Amino acid sequence: xxxxxxxxxxxxxxxxxxxxxxxxxxxxxxxxxxxxxxxxxxxxxxxxxxxxxxxxxxxxxxxxxx
Length: 66
What we know:
Layout: E1 2-8, H1 14-31, E2 35-39, E3 49-56, H2 59-65
Antiparallel strand pairs: 1-3, 2-3
């Protein structure tokens, strides 16, 4: 299963957002059943816009996490 989330970050906070997202994703992947990691592409049109895609073993495991 995949999830897709979109964020509009305050200008100037992009690098902080990337660091925090990366750390949080690592912790979730290590500790949450069914979490398989994700990726965080950045918009080519707007440097403050990100779209994350994460992988999960199942909808139920993602739902339990949420």
